[in-house]
Amino acid sequence: MSPEIADRLIDIVRNAARIEILPHFRNLAAGSIEAKTDPSDLVTIADRAAEARITREVASLLPQAMIIGEEAVSANPALLQGLATAELAVLVDPIDGTWNFVSGSSLFGVILAVVEGGRTTFGLLYDPVNDGWVTAHAGEGAFRFDREGRRERLRIHPEEMRSAAFMPLGQFDPQTQRALFSRFTDVARLSSLYCSCHEYWLLAHGAADFGVSAMLNPWDHAAGELIIREAGGHAAMLDGSPYRPGISQGNNLLVARSPALWKTVRDQLAEALFHAECPQ
Q: Which domain holds residue 247?
């Protein structure tokens, strides 16, 4: 991933947001919203148009790449096959946080990740409303950019705050929800934005201590997980194995501001999940 290619990918995402997404923000026409798996799993005309534009322009830029968009996979899950071994793949989430977008909340974003040989080598979190973005190249650190292109390196401080963390309790069964919540009562803000883009953004800025996934869609996590590690945080599956974008099921992904905190939270999660499976 050369800097020139990365800059072009950023331009593609920014243009898609400007042309295909923002004109529909708080301006969605009747009939332009559909539910997929359940009433909260939404897709809009903006999701589809943005993904189509990004896919078309990335294919022109990187004709050898496998391009995997969330909406394309929704229509054809077989597209995910081969991601783990693809020489070059680009993951696209055209609107991450579609429910928020539909509801008029600005907590939505665009996520793009480049995967080479099963490993994420470039990640982008883009905030369309503020026209700002966070990127990371593997081994080169994580950076925040504003609309003028000014750059700031991100470095997560390892000191634990217990002020905020992200955990999508609503995606667990009720018994597991109770077990999890009871183990983390000391976290002042235990919540979920239901937008991986903004959750990883805040984690990379050190505004939250840890984040737990309940689903492993690669377009949600590949970019953010790389950015957290490049900013100095720690990320791994609950069994301690490294995260890879080709993992689509199994145990949860946990990211934290330090390896020590990761282990503490992992132990609390393991205890809660065991308690939920084996109630007294």
A: 164-277
